[in-house]
Amino acid sequence: MRRHLLILGPPLAWLLLLVAAPLGILGLIAFAEAGPGVPPFIPPLAWEGGPVWQGSSESLATLLADSYYLEAFLRSLLTAFVTAALCLLLAYPMALGIAGARPGWRLPLLLLVLLPFWTGFLPRLGAWIGLFRDGGWVNGMLGLLGIGPLRLLYTEAALHAGMVHAYLPFAVLPLATALLRRDLALEEAAADLGATPFTVFRSVTLPLSLPAAASAFLLVFIPAAGEFVIPDLLGPPEALLVGRVLWSEFFQNRDWPLAAALALALLVLLLPPILLFQRLGRRA
Amino acid sequence: MALLRTEGLSKRFGQTLALDGLDLDVRPGEFLALLGGSGSGKSTLLRLVAGFEAPDAGRILLEGRDLAGLPPHARPVSMMFQSYALFPHLSVFDNVAYGLRREGVARAEIARRVAEGLALVGLEGTAGRKPHQLSGGQRQRVALIRALVKRPRLLMLDEPLAALDAGLRERTGLELRALQRRTGAGFVMVTHDQGEALALADRIAVLEGGRLAQCGTPAELYERPASRFVARFLGAANILEGRVATDGLVEAAGCRLALPHDRPAGADLAVALRPERIRLLPGTPPATNAATGRLRDLAYRGDGWMALVALPGGTELRVALPVDAAPPAPGAQLVLGWPAEALVPLAA
């Protein structure tokens, strides 16, 4: 038992210090009342000869009452859904190609998928801005064809281009791993029983890869729901996603309790997909 | 016409030549065993016939029709995989029905034929189960009936019994042959187990290094092996290397062998001698077809003893002794003898 504590101790302390404690503080702040000072809220628990509760659930009530926040949540979930779906559509053929490539080609192809990670995230978004802005590369090319200039930057399309670009590798990796490990004898058996290559894919390859596809989808969906930077830099100004709303409540309105309540609500919303992802992982 | 004929079939994987100009005939309705060690090319042959690999040279004819260029799904042959390759996401029913659905057979007809097939192998109650809910023996039978339900004229089986427990293997093998007789389909079974091949097959094709070493009935191969390889592979025969003397007798391993047929004097000759054809003789050895030696080792085989007897020249003979005789003590001098017809001259 003591030896177990020695092994489990450091990671447990790490989790306690960096996950549980901040989450607890976040929970406390969510139930605080905003007020002047640094930090800008009145602590919900005070000590006046004994513990005194002086918090309020006003911030949580605001979240539920004001449709502005509800809309931000729905928009975020929708954006994350579209991003995850687009990533899955692009990643599946890529993963299939990598898994079907000759053994010597597979690792270089996987490295190519990861290549964007070798550059900083913000410079890559800067490149998208350079491509999409009114006098940018894409409009320059369209101009040669006599089209445009079109408004591309700060649109939903630019937002999704940036999101898909940033999250695609997260979808390719689990799919490629699963497709590489698949039993090719099953596909040979299907062909032997008279299935054309398309039917083999539809009736054997695809259904057997669905758990991996669901994993890939959730691996994109979960972080994309809270994404803040990409919508801010590429998306339309009216695209009020949770990440941006949270940012403005925290830094512009200095309403920490409301920002904390938003963060907690997002976590609660994402719990079901996170638990689903873990269950899928256990089955695979 | 042969059901399946290969002509000069060759296949190379990188540096290794898996098949080297193989000529083989499978007759309609026969049970042919492809016997060979690992790397002999037997599984490669199945993969070429099924269309999973393309040959580098040679032709594959099914009932006279060249299969070249036909993709696997268009080839009228069925295959049972060593791993069974059952679809894990489909029920037993859907696994067996898979091939019929691809043929566009009517729904009611599919249900009838799947039920009939499952009944044939005693799996009536399992139609709704998934493969992982079945025992190893049940999975094996689902794989078999899945391949057979399309009524192929040629079924290829890749080590169909290898994954079964020893106790189940013999019974399942006999069921396999009964099913083959009943359906009338030609069976080509790959195996590395000589006992399996001898017990089940109408004919055995022994492959060695991607070539056909010998093809014939089990009795022909066992009693008249054509080469040292076949003699050793089937039943682990003793091989005596010698020369034909002027009197027509063969001198080998210090013995004088009288063969049923005379050979030209001076020729080198290898002779196979089965362990179970050698007997212990009382008294002094006769002048021919006998030897004296010292018992080196003795192994109990259940149905008898396998004795290793060292002859004066250094050659060791494997001798099968009946179980009812009291075994000789190690180091004992033994007198061995055998009939002339037990000696099989080998061509290679």
From TrEMBL, chain A:
PROSITE patterns: ABC_TM1. Its main location: membrane. Gene3D superfamilies: MetI-like (1.10.3720.10). The chain crosses the membrane at residues 12-32, 72-95, 107-131, 208-230, 256-277. Keywords: Cell membrane, Membrane, Transmembrane, Transmembrane helix, Transport. It is a multi-pass membrane protein. One of its GO terms (biological process) is transmembrane transport. It is found in: Cell membrane. GO terms for cellular component: plasma membrane. It comes from the Bacteria. Residues 73-277 form the ABC transmembrane type-1 domain. SUPFAM superfamilies: MetI-like. PANTHER family: INNER MEMBRANE ABC TRANSPORTER PERMEASE PROTEIN YDCU-RELATED-RELATED, PUTRESCINE TRANSPORT SYSTEM PERMEASE PROTEIN POTH. Belongs to the binding-protein-dependent transport system permease family. CysTW subfamily. This is Putrescine transport system permease protein. It comes from Belnapia rosea.
From TrEMBL, chain B:
SMART domains: AAA. One of its GO terms (molecular function) is ATP hydrolysis activity. Keywords: ATP-binding, Nucleotide-binding, Transport. Residues 4-234 form the ABC transporter domain. It comes from the Bacteria. The keyword Calcium does not apply. Gene3D superfamilies: 2.40.50.100, P-loop containing nucleotide triphosphate hydrolases. One of its GO terms (biological process) is putrescine transport. SUPFAM superfamilies: MOP-like (SSF50331), P-loop containing nucleoside triphosphate hydrolases (SSF52540). One of its GO terms (cellular component) is ATP-binding cassette (ABC) transporter complex. The keyword Transport applies. This is Putrescine transport system ATP-binding protein.
